Amino acid sequence: MARLCRAAPVGAFHVKEPALTVSHATNAQIFRGLHQDGLLILPNAWDAGSARLIESLGASAIATTSAGVAWSHGCADGDLLPVPLLVATVTEIARAIRAPLSVDVEGGYSSDPRSVGETVRAVVDAGAVGINVEDGALPPDLLCAKLERVRSAAQQRGVDLFVNVRTDVYLRGLAPREQRVEETLARAARYRAAGADGLFVPGLVDRGEIRTIAVRAGLPLNVLVRPGLPDAAELAGLGVRRLSAGSDVAEAALGRVAAVVSAFLRDGRSEPLSEGALPYADAQALMAVR
Fold first, then answer.
1. Where do the domains of the chain lie, and which CATH numbers do they carry?
2. Alpha helix locations (H) across the chain?
3. Which tens digit of pLDDT belongs to each residue from 27-43?
């Protein structure tokens, strides 16, 4: 079973290449504009149903969580999801929502920049107007090469794709603590030159460091929810332009499922299953074809 959850090359499936609609181009413009002023808050979705629910609650845009998408297919996070499943998920989400859609493509599911470009082309064709792509523990040179392919793929499709680059300097401790700001800024400069539109720094929580990176990076700064992170109003004042929930919403949902199912298996009582639940009629109305 584990073999099913290993990344498959984009060439292993065929993606229809539809003509881009006005709404696709418009959503790309809207999404880029959401990073110019104020703070864009993104509670990340993992499938079409969660995306529609999040949109209905007032989200200005929908972003996916790579972990949540992988888990929804019975796969582990970490560039292991087969690309056809990613593209199918993006297609389903894009069908279900009107808001701009940004997709976490992890490291592009390949170390080959050409393959990463093909994957991004497929994701754009499926409806994405933004992506997240990360360096992880790999050299910045490799991500720069991937970014060149990503930009080329978006241009070929005529989409003003917002490329949000995640650097894991803080998350993975890739530099000594006293050097993390400067290492992050050095990578930001390289990624900006290679075509990045935004900088995502998960693990960044210190107010002074947030302000420094926001001011000096030359890219809209995206941070990830973490204990100790300032609230939305303070983050906006520090210069942050995007706040992501990452996998936390999916984790909360799975935690709730684990709790109610464990209780049900233990005693078979009906009442706890309905506590805090979205009523059937409301869910039906939410998912009705528009």
1. 23-247 (3.20.20.60)
2. 22-33, 48-56, 66-72, 83-96, 113-126, 140-157, 180-194, 207-216, 232-238, 248-267, 271-274, 280-287
3. 999 999 999 999 999 99
